[in-house]
Amino acid sequence: MAGNPSDEAERFAREARATGLVLPSRAPTRPWIAAATAILLVVAAVEIGYLAHDFLLQRPEGPPTIVLPACTDSTYPFNGTVSSTLDPTPDAWLVAADHQMANATGGCAVLALSASSGDGFTPELAGRTTEFAVSGSLPNATDLGAVPGTIETIPVALAAVAIVYDLPGVPAGLHLSSSALAGIFEGTITSWNDPSISDLNPSASLAGLPPITVVHRSDTSSSTLALTQFLSATNASWRSAVGAGLSVTWPVGTAAGSRSALLADVNGTAGSIGYVTTYGDDTPGVEEAAIEDAAGSFALPTAAAVGAAAASFSGSPAVENAEWANVSFANATQSGSYPLAQLVYIALYQDPATAYGGTMSLTTATWVIAYLWWLTGVTLLAPLPPTYIESAGEMFTHVSYNGTQVIQFQGPGGGDGDIDEF
To answer: Which residues share a beta bridge with 165?
Structure first.
């Protein structure tokens, strides 16, 4: 990446502070830092000749939170694979985070990214050709049966699925309910002037518009999964007739084999509607709909609305117990929530020493985990709420090396496993 390393590191630190996190820097020598009590990530010294505590991940008030091994004589390259179901891929976010972390820590960990030929879990993670996988979905039964060991699948970011359309004379923010969306994608609503749409948009000029043309994905896609899960959670008819999945049998519509193809089809067809994963302002040429949430308000896929959806579940047992399959943003109760928010996950082996037959060193495993944990504090579309980060941190403590826990979080009370808020 171009630019002055110190400038990029400072920009990264400013972004981190905005989300309540200060990123790695050289360990300060001021006595009050050493005396402070905070969350401490202890790197296991097993099979490492020594640990020089050169780099720290800090909270805003200063006390150390992460201690990492020095790399004065070598760097530690590691590989990540991005699922083909994530479209667009979050590569720029992943690479930027790694590059800026390298600027801050002296370039110890070096990330190489590749695109998966499958969902990331298979074939790459199962074949142990990558240290971690990035996916927009949790592993299915086939994935779990293919990996030769236990894996941890941990949320690290928030994204969203935008409902996009091309309606001449209709600006962004068309109000759509879940029942209207289900009717459109089922083919039972074929006119934009249908009462289920017009009643929600009294000021929009919907009469005389071209008939509704549905554009959907023809391949496996996490955007399809998020949309169909939302429709299944909110509409009994959709749940029984179509269901949810990375791919489904669509009742109607034109098939598009990629996100870019879907956007082109919608942009080129007046009256059309489709859906795409979004990480922000990345849907040029089309407009985005405002979707009704469980509280009866309507929201666009903005950072604030996606964050509100995630915050609705901050105190839920599903988040606190890391039961991510039970977190459904379709039922987000906070007004102004965007119900088509989605989690982005990473997956890694619970015991990399065993999984990779000893070819991954403990030091490399430590830097991989530090990078992945760091991602939880770096915004993709909206920041992860603190309780999500806390649960993710707990999951990282499950990773061991030959049975020895790689990291430990120690809270202000001093007990292992107590994770303070970041």
So the answer is: 273, 287
Question: What is the spatial distance between Cα 229 and Cα 235, in angstroms, rounded to a whole number?
Answer: 10
Domain coverage including residue 274: 160-338
Per-residue model confidence as pLDDT tens digits over 209-248: 999 999 999 999 999 999 999 999 999 999 999 999 999 9
Q: 278, 313, 338: which is the final residue of a domain?
A: 338
Annotate 9-31 with b (16+ C-beta within 10 A) or e (fewer). Answer: beebbebbeebebbbbeebeeee
Q: How many structural domains is the chain composed of? A: 2
Answer whether residue 50 is part of any domain.
yes
Q: How far apart are CA 253 and CA 240, in angstroms?
A: 19
**Greater pLDDT, 142 or 412:** 142
- DSSP state at residue 416: B
Contact indicator for 321, 328 with CB cutoff of 8 Å:
no
Instruction: Decide: residue 388, CB within 10 A, 0-12 exposed, 13-18 middle, 19+ buried.
Output: buried
Q: Which H or E run includes 179? A: helix 178-186
pLDDT of 224: 98
